[in-house]
C-alpha cells in the first residue's frame, strides 16, 4: 500500500453517495454473451492493461475523510479477488439456462465488499440457449451510470468485422437536456404561452414528485408487493429479444419516436399481465420511474474524449448524471384494451409533458439542500422512498450496430440489469446489432416470469397488428 496514501482523493458525487448508503446499495450487472466458448487465460492481463486504466474509480475504494465526507481513494488492486469462475452442478440438459438464472439471482443479492474496488467479473463457461459462454460484470452504481459504463465497455471492445474501424450507433434525435434552459427563455419572449405552460408543468410536476417521494404510494398490485421493504429483494433476471425493424414499423406508421413505441408496448404489456393476475388491478394506480440522461451531449464518448471534455469544460461526463421522470402507467380500459396504440399516445404525451418542465432540476436542488442540512444519508432515504413508492424503474442504453468482440470472442448478445432497488419490477433495454433486448428483474416468488414475458411479447404483436389497421 506504500505510495497510495499520497494519491489525491477524489470526492464522491452526491448521487454516488446516495447509491452506496445504509438505505440504498445499487449495482449494475452487464451481461455479455459469447458466440464461442470462453478462454479465460487472458483475463488478468486484460483487466490490468485495459480495464483498470479506464478510470481511477476501478482501482479505488470509498472512504470517509476527516470531515466525514466520502472520497475515492486509490488502492492496490488484487485482481484475483475480483474474478469468479463458478462451478455448476451436473444437469440432465446440455444447456445451463436455469443454473445461470439462479447464479445471477444469487450475486444480485450480494453486496460488493467495501474494502476493495467496487466491481467484479463472473466468467460462466457453460452453454445456454443464447450463448456458448457468458461474462457478467458486476459494478457498483456509485462508479457511474449506464452511459459511463457503456462508454467504458466500448473502450475495451472492438468491431468483430474490422477492429480498425469505430463502432456506429443507431441515429436518434436526442431530446435536449432538461437543464438546458436558455433556449426556453428565448422562446418565451416570442411565445408567452410556452412560458406559462412551462411554469404550470413545473409547479404541477414538482409538487407531484415531492408527494410521490414522501407520502403518496402506488397501489399494491401484481407488480408491486411492497413486502419486506427493509430487505434486499431476491429477483429473477430474464430477457426477450425484439427486432428493431418491427419496432420501427410501428414508429413509422404512427409518426412517433422509437422510445414512444417501446414505452407504450411495455406499459401495455404490464397492464395485460396485471389483468391476467387480477382483473381489478389493471385500473389501480401504478407509476414508472423513467430514467433520463441529463448530459447535454449526443452519443457515447471514448475515455480519451471524456478526458478532453473535462479539460475544456471543467465538468466530467463520467459518473451518475441522470434524473427520474414519474410517468403514470395508463389504466387498462374498455377503450384501449383492444387498441394498444392508445398506450403509445399516452406514453408520448406524458413523457413530453414531463420534459416540458423544470421539476427535475428543482428536485435535484431539494436533494442537495437536504444533503447540506441533514447529510447524505437523509438524501439517500429520500431517493429510496422515491423508488419504493413507485411500481417499476425503466432505463435504456444504446449499443452499437456492428458486432463487438472481446479478446477475439465475438459477442452475440448484450444486456444489463440494475439490482438493489426496493421495487418488485425493474426493466432495462439495450439495442445491439439491430435487436432490442428487454431485460426484466422480477421479484422471485411474486411475479410469474412466464406469464409476464408472454404478455410483453403479446403487447408488441398487438401493437403491430393495430398499427397496420390504423389509417392516418
Task: State the main characteristics.
472 residues, alpha+beta, six-stranded mixed beta sheet, 16 strands, 37% helix
Account of the protein in words:
37% of the residues lie in helices and 21% in strands. The N and C termini lie far apart (68 Å). By secondary structure, the chain is α+β, with helices and mostly antiparallel strands. Helix 5 (182-190) packs across helix 6, helix 7 (244-254) crosses helix 8 and helix 8 packs across helix 10 (341-355). A hairpin with an 8-residue loop joins strand 6 (119-124) and strand 7 (133-140). The strands form 3 sheets. A 7-stranded mixed beta sheet has the order 5-6-7-2-14-13-8, with helices on both faces. A 6-stranded mixed beta sheet has the order 9-16-15-12-10-11, sandwiched between helices. A 3-stranded antiparallel beta sheet has the order 1-4-3, with no helix packed on it. The chain has helices at 14-18, 43-51, 97-109, 146-156, 182-190, 192-212, 244-254, 258-277, 303-313, 341-355, 359-374, 376-388, 449-469; strands at residues 10-11, 27-34, 60-64, 70-74, 83-84, 119-124, 133-140, 158-159, 235-243, 287-293, 322-328, 392-398, 404-406, 409-419, 425-432, 435-443. It has 13 helices and 16 strands. The radius of gyration is 22 Å and the shape is globular. The model is unreliable at 1-6 and 172-191 (pLDDT under 50). The longest helix is centred in the middle third of the chain and has 21 residues, at 192-212.
Amino acid at each position: 500500500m506504500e505510495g497510495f496514501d499520497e494519491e489525491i482523493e477524489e470526492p464522491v458525487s452526491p448521487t454516488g453517495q446516495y447509491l452506496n448508503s445504509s438505505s440504498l446499495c445499487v449495482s449494475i450487472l452487464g451481461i455479455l454473451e459469447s458466440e464461442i466458448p470462453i478462454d479465460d487465460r487472458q483475463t488478468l492481463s486484460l483487466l490490468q492493461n485495459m480495464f483498470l486504466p479506464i478510470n481511477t474509480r476501478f482501482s479505488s475504494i470509498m472512504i470517509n475523510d476527516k470531515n466525514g465526507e466520502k472520497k475515492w481513494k486509490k488502492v492496490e488492486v488484487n485482481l484475483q479477488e475480483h474474478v469468479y469462475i463458478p462451478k455448476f452442478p451436473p444437469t440432465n440438459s446440455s444447456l445451463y439456462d436455469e443454473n445461470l438464472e439462479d447464479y445471477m439471482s444469487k450475486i444480485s443479492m450480494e453486496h460488493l465488499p467495501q474494502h476493495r474496488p467496487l466491481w467484479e467479473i463472473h466468467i460462466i463457461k457453460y452453454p445456454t440457449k443464447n450463448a456458448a459462454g457468458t461474462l457478467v460484470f458486476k459494478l457498483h452504481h456509485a462508479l457511474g451510470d449506464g452511459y459511463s459504463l457503456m462508454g467504458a465497455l466500448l473502450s475495451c471492445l472492438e468491431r468483430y468485422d474490422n477492429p480498425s474501424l469505430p463502432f456506429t450507433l443507431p441515429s436518434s434525435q436526442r431530446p435536449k437536456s432538461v437543464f438546458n434552459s436558455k433556449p426556453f427563455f428565448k422562446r418565451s419572449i416570442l411565445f408567452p404561452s410556452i412560458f406559462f405552460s412551462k411554469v404550470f408543468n413545473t409547479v404541477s410536476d414538482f409538487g407531484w414528485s415531492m408527494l410521490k417521494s414522501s407520502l403518496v404510494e402506488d397501489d399494491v398490485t401484481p407488480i408491486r408487493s411492497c413486502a419486506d421493504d427493509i430487505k434486499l429483494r431476491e429477483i429473477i433476471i430474464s430477457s426477450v429479444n425484439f427486432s428493431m425493424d418491427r419496432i420501427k414499423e410501428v414508429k413509422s406508421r404512427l409518426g412517433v419516436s422509437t422510445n414512444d413505441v417501446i414505452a407504450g408496448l411495455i406499459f401495455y404489456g404490464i397492464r395485460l399481465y396485471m389483468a391476467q393476475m387480477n382483473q381489478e388491478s389493471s385500473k389501480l394506480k401504478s407509476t414508472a420511474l423513467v430514467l433520463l440522461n441529463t448530459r447535454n451531449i449526443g452519443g457515447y464518448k471514448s475515455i480519451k474524449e471524456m478526458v478532453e471534455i473535462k479539460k475544456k469544460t471543467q465538468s466530467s461526463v463520467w459518473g451518475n448524471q441522470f434524473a427520474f421522470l414519474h410517468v403514470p402507467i395508463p389504466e387498462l380500459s374498455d377503450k384501449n384494451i383492444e387498441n394498444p396504440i392508445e398506450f403509445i399516445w399516452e406514453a408520448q404525451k406524458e413523457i413530453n409533458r414531463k420534459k416540458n418542465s423544470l421539476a427535475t432540476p428543482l428536485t435535484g436542488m431539494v436533494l442537495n439542500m437536504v444533503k447540506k442540512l441533514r447529510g447524505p444519508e437523509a438524501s439517500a432515504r429520500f431517493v429510496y422512498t422515491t423508488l419504493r413508492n413507485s411500481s417499476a424503474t425503466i432505463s435504456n442504453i444504446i449499443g452499437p450496430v456492428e458486432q463487438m468482440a472481446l479478446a477475439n470472442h465475438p459477442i452475440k448478445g448484450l444486456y444489463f440489469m440494475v439490482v438493489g432497488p426496493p421495487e418488485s419490477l425493474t426493466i432495462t433495454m439495450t439495442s445491439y446489432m439491430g435487436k432490442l433486448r428487454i431485460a426484466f428483474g422480477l421479484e422471485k416468488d411474486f411475479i410469474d416470469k412466464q406469464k409476464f414475458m408472454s404478455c410483453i411479447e403479446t403487447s408488441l404483436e398487438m401493437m403491430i397488428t393495430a398499427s397496420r389497421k390504423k389509417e392516418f
